[in-house]
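Why do we care about 3D structure at all? Because function follows from shape, and shape follows, mostly, from sequence. That is the central idea of this module. The next example makes it concrete: a single protein chain, its amino acid sequence, and then its structure expressed as tokens.
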Amino acid sequence: MRVAVVDYQSGNLASALRGLQLAARRRHIAAEVFITARPEELRRADRIVLPGQGAFADCAAGLASVPGLGAALAERVEQGAPFLGICVGMQLMAERGLEHGVTPGFGWIRGEIAKMRPGRERLPHMGWNELAFTPGAHPLLAGLRPGDHAYFVHSYALAGGNPGEIIATADYAGEVVAMVASGNRAGTQFHAEKSQEVGLTILGNFLAWSP
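And the structure:
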């Protein structure tokens, strides 16, 4: 199995690489995990992981700045390769982002990425937070329990999403979308690669996932 971690100058590439490698070893999955910015390598990948950190617009621009990279990613995912977006990588799955102007996303899930309005809570939403979900709701959640913690760092979140595409939430002075899934595409708003055992479980589930 070839697992591509997309390099577009945004995201914790090394952490994502190590997390996926460790998750593969724990599950006894034969996986070649590699970082790439080459469209031809994405087209040969069996699974694709898109990390992301920073602003939606900057990440979208970074992806667009590598000739053919975004097109190859979309093409391979449309062909059925399982996809996992992490943090802004998940946000890019939405229809558009509102950070630093209006920027189109992939349009793979409904909704837009808007600034959180947590009232008296501070932004960014940073640190460990409990996940809320229905056990058995999705294969990526296998082995987890409601109340398990994941590590978040963000000020923008999915708004106007399709409830059928939201598989986990968190509470930060209101409901925050934590995980989404639609077909062979899934994403975590939190940093799965920094979420210790919870993150490793999700990464392992992704490697074993047959959407």
